[in-house]
Structure formats: structure tokens, C-alpha cells
Q: What sequence folds into this?
């Protein structure tokens, strides 16, 4: 039976791993390699590295190569600056198994099909950062120009037509707060498509994660900085979530 | 752990995560090199065909690199060959991903869309078929899959299966014909269970 996933998220800004607060403030944590190596060693079900300041620079291939050089035996997903088929191909070649697409979904949705032909739809994840406006309506948070807007028709079409294989729902307002993710965001997104959903934002405890994993459409959750403070954080979370269909914890053996 | 000094030739056709596979194989203690060149791949004890991507582009790259005939001859000669993920699918006779494309034709069968659900992404346990001593130790182990197309072919060549849900129709997780193996999952990204399985296959290949 296919298991749900407990994924470690590492946010990178200006080359440093950071703790992100609402996509507005950042606290430096250290070298991304150190955090990623720990997640690999601790037995995460996957590692998601999000470079949040790439803009038009393209993906951070040097970072992906440095992470690849660690000899990870955990699937690595990368997001940041991915805008073209060539970017997708090079990021996978550098060592990423899967790619998170964000700005390209709004700025150039036609590029997604070309990326899929290069690396396969199974490698593509669409990121959808969400916020609520003053009257509670769920909206898409656009990094550029840093404002909320209704989810565009182009993005609705991409996810409905399954041009990607998973949808990463990000609760922007909960990001970095450790107070849990707004479940209503997921419920607002579910009718848009049949894609499996990943969830990120504000998750740190088993009590916060359990309701998400209990949703049939949720295939995995991403936990960020909360994993960094304890050596066995992945194992401890999994131990507390044995009632959920997660892969049993198995810390990496050192060969 | 230091394995025997077998050499693994990683077939490079510019599609996929070859570097990850290279590091994994070296971590297991084997010699490994990535190459597009038949004369260099000739020195390998075991050939490894990785892949992340779409079937038509991968076959196009293999044809452009002149590697289709090379791999077919290698299989005819009984050289050990292990395909991983898309690399496994390329071993089949054809695929319908993004249109019909002939494959390497090393193992009878075709690659088709999974159906419902459309994706098989994440960690899933292996059901090893009877008569597969090399895989038996991995029966029930959980491996990392990431695909939306799957191999369908004669039972005789199916070495392991996985099910998306309890009681659902199984998906082919591994195939074998002689010294040619295909693994739909990523052993190099399946942590200890995947590394252990890959090491066994390479060692067995080296004894051919």
C-alpha cells in the first residue's frame, strides 16, 4: 500500500537555510547542506529544498549539485527559479528527483508542458501559496508582485488537466508560526482538481499533522524548521503518528 | 562496507539523475563511471541504465547516442544490465507515453498509463514473486516510487509487484529476463532497503 509521506522542508535564501515567517521575515539557520544531510540521515520520506529568492536567475544548480554530492539516499525535490524546459532538465541532471513550480505557473503556464516532456509529469509539483483576504476568501499569494489575487484560470486549468502530478498547498500566514495549518485552505482547493495534495506551513507537532494525513487527498506533509532542533525528530513524529499510513521509521544505516 | 571491486558502467544518455546513481554505487563500494562511450562501457562488469523523464525523449537520446544497438547486443551476450525507473521502462518493447514509441525490446511487454489513480508517487512495499531468490530478502520492504506509466507484460518476467491500495490491482515493480533487470522504484533513493537490494543485484551481476 502506498504510504503517506513526512517530508522535511528546507527554505534557502541568499544561499543560507532560513526559517521563514510568513514569507516576510527570515532567520538564518546555517548551511543548507547540513540540514539536508541531517534529514537524510534521520530517515525523512523526502527532502524539499525551496530557494525563495531566485527570481529570474533560474534554478540554483550549484546548490543542487552540492546537495547531490552528499550522496543522499532520500528523494530530493527542488523549487526555485524554474522557468524553462532547460531549467527542469538541468535541475534533474544536477540531482533533483522532483521539481516544485511556482512563478512559472502564473507567468508562463505554457512552459509546463515542455518541462513535462523533458522530465515527465511525475517529476512536477505545483506550489500554491495561499492567504485569506479581509473577508476570509482564499487567494493565491504571488511572490511577484507580492500581493494576493484570485487563483488564475491558467493555474486552474493546469491542475485540472493534471499537467503536474501533485499540488503543494502552502499556508503563507501560518508559515514559521508553528501553530498548525489552516485546514480550510485545503478544503477550498480540493474541488479544483483530483491531484494528490501536499501541505506546508506552520506544522510542527503530531497533533497538527494528524488531521491533515487523515484527509484522503493529502499524500504528504512538509515540516520545516521544527525538525531541526532534535536529533530524532522524524522518528519521534512518526512514532506519535503510528495510527497514520506513514512509512515505518527506519533511520539510515551508515554504510 | 567495502564491496568487491566490480565496475558499474552507468549509461549516460543525458536524461535523468545519473549523478545520484553514481554516488550511490560508489557509496556501496563499487567502482563506477558514467559514460556515453561503448568502448568505456565495455570495461564494466555491470551496466546500469538510470532515468528520470519521459519515454520518447529518452529513446530519442539513446538513438542519438548510438546506444540502442549497444544495449541490445550487451543483453544478447548475457551482460548484466539493470534499468532503474524510466531505465526499466526502456527495456520494454514499447510505450504509449506521449504517443507510441518503440523501446529497447529486451523484455517482452509494454509501458502504459497506470490508470486510476494516475500516479504512483511515494513509498510502497514490494511483493516479490516466487522464484526470485535475489529479491526475496526485500519482500515487504518499502521502496520509493515515482511514475505515472507502468510495465505490463507476461507473468514470467515479473519479479515483484506493488499495490497502491489494499486489494487493488498490482503494478509491476521489478522485471527480469536472464541477466537483464528492471526496477520501477528508485533503489538509490530508497535508503537502506534500496541500497541493500541494489548491492545484491550488482554483486550477482558481477558473478555472471
A:
Amino acid at each position: 500500500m502506498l504510504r503517506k509521506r513526512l517530508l522535511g522542508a528546507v527554505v534557502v535564501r541568499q544561499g543560507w537555510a532560513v526559517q521563514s515567517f510568513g514569507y516576510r521575515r527570515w532567520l538564518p539557520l546555517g548551511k543548507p547542506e547540513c540540514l539536508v544531510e541531517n534529514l537524510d540521515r534521520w530517515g525523512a520520506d523526502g527532502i524539499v529544498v525551496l530557494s525563495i529568492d531566485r527570481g529570474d536567475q533560474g534554478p540554483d544548480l550549484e546548490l543542487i549539485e552540492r546537495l547531490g554530492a552528499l550522496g543522499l539516499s532520500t528523494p530530493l525535490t527542488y523549487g526555485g527559479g524554474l522557468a524553462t524546459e532547460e531549467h527542469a532538465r538541468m535541475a534533474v541532471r544536477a540531482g533533483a528527483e522532483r521539481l516544485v513550480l511556482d512563478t512559472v505557473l502564473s507567468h508562463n503556464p505554457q512552459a509546463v508542458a515542455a518541462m513535462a516532456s523533458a522530465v515527465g509529469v511525475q517529476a512536477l509539483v505545483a506550489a500554491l501559496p495561499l492567504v485569506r483576504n479581509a473577508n476570509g476568501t482564499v487567494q493565491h499569494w504571488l511572490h511577484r508582485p507580492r500581493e494576493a489575487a484570485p487563483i488564475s484560470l491558467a493555474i486552474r486549468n493546469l491542475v485540472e488537466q493534471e499537467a503536474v502530478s501533485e499540488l503543494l498547498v502552502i499556508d503563507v500566514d501560518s508559515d514559521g508560526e508553528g501553530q498548525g495549518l489552516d485546514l480550510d485552505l485545503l478544503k477550498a482547493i480540493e474541488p479544483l482538481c483530483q491531484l494528490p495534495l501536499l501541505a506546508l506551513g506552520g506544522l510542527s507537532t503530531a497533533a497538527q499533522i494528524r488531521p491533515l494525513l487523515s484527509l484522503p487527498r493529502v499524500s504528504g506533509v512538509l515540516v520545516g524548521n521544527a525538525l531541526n532542533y532534535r536529533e530524532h525528530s522524524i522518528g519521534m513524529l512518526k512514532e506519535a503518528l503510528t495510527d497514520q499510513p506513514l512509512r515505518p521509521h527506519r533511520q539510515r544505516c551508515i554504510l | 562496507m567495502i564491496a568487491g571491486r566490480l565496475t558499474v558502467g552507468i549509461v549516460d544518455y543525458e536524461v535523468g539523475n545519473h549523478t545520484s546513481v553514481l554516488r550511490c554505487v560508489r557509496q556501496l563500494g563499487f567502482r563506477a563511471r558514467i559514460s556515453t562511450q561503448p568502448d568505456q562501457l565495455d570495461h564494466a562488469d555491470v551496466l546500469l541504465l538510470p532515468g528520470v523523464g519521459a519515454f520518447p525523449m529518452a529513446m530519442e537520446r539513446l538513438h542519438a547516442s548510438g546506444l540502442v544497438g549497444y544495449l541490445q547486443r550487451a543483453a544478447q551476450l548475457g551482460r548484466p544490465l539493470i534499468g532503474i525507473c524510466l531505465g526499466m521502462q526502456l527495456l520494454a518493447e514499447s510505450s504509449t507515453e506521449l504517443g507510441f514509441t518503440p523501446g529497447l525490446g529486451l523484455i517482452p511487454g509494454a509501458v502504459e498509463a497506470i490508470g486510476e489513480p494516475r500516479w504512483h508517487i511515494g513509498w510502497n512495499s514490494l511483493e516479490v514473486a516466487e522464484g526470485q531468490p535475489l529479491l526475496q530478502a526485500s519482500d515487504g520492504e518499502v521502496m520509493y516510487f515515482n511514475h505515472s506509466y507502468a510495465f505490463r507484460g507476461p507473468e514470467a518476467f515479473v519479479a515483484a509487484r506493488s499495490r497502491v491500495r489494499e486489494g487493488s490491482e498490482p503494478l509491476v515493480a521489478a522485471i527480469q529476463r536472464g541477466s537483464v533487470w528492471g526496477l520501477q522504484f528508485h533503489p538509490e533513493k530508497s535508503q537502506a532497503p534500496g541500497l541493500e537490494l541494489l548491492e545484491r543485484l550488482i554483486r550477482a551481476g558481477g558473478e555472471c
Remarks:
- The CA atoms of residues 138 and 185 of chain A lie 7 Å apart.
- The radius of gyration of chain A is 17 Å.
- Chain A has nine helices and twelve strands.
